[in-house]
Design brief:
Number of domains: 2
Distance between the termini: 42 Å
Order of helices and strands: HEEEEEEEEEEEEEEEEEEH
Shape: globular
Number of strands: 18
Strand content: over 45%
Structural class: mainly beta
Radius of gyration: 19 Å
CATH topology of the largest domain: Thrombin, subunit H
Length: 230
Amino acid sequence: MTEPSDVLDLLQIGLPIEVQVPMPDSEQTNVYFSQIIDRDQARLHISAPQRSGQQIDILLDGEPIFLRFSHAGIAYTCACRKLGWHHDPEGMLISHPYQVERIQRRNFVRVRAELPVTLTLLDARIPDPVIRTRTTDLSGGGMMIVYDRDVPLYIDAQVQLTLPPESDSRGTVFDTLSLSAQICRSIACAEGFQIGLCFLNVAEKTQDRLVRFIFRHQREQIKDARHLTG
C-alpha cells in the first residue's frame, strides 16, 4: 500500500479528480467529477462534485469519500472524509487522505482503437440524445470519441461498444458490451470535439472482456510496428 504522505504532494491545485461515494446498504458507488481548487496543512478544498449537472448533496460531515486521480501515468485511489462546505469559492472541504492505493495498471492501459459505438445521453434536456460514432482510443477505465458537436460535461450515458470477434471454445464470439459512463472531457479539435467518457461501475465480467481486447490489440500494434521497422 502506498503511504498517504507519498501522494499528498501530487494533489495540486487544478488536478482533476473523480469522487466516489459508496451508497448506504448497497454495493453501488456513485461517481462524481471535481478538481482541487485549494489546499492547506490540514485539508483540501475541491470544487463541488457534479454528476449529470447535479451537485452532490447526500453526504454528512465526517463521512468517507474516495478520490481517484492519475499522475505520470499512474492511477491512485485514496480515502478522505468530508469536513464541510466552503462558499467562496463554492466547494467541499475534505481531509487529507488517510489511505492510498495504486490502482491496477491493466485498467488504465490505453490503446488507439476505432470501434463502432452508440451513446445514449441520459438527459431529457438534450433533444437528440443518440450518438453513433467510433472510438479513437480505449482503456479499461474509459474511452475517447470524436463527434461533430459539443456535449455537456458530467452527463451520464449508456454505451453500446462493439468489439471485434474473438475465438474461444465456443467458436467465434461477437461481443457488444453495455456500459454506463459519464462525459468527463470535451476538447475542440479539427473534426469537431474530442469527447472523453469515464466508465462507471463496470461489471467484473465486462471489465475482463474489455481488458482482454485491449491487451490483444496492444500486442497486435506492437507486432505491426516491428514488422514495419524490420
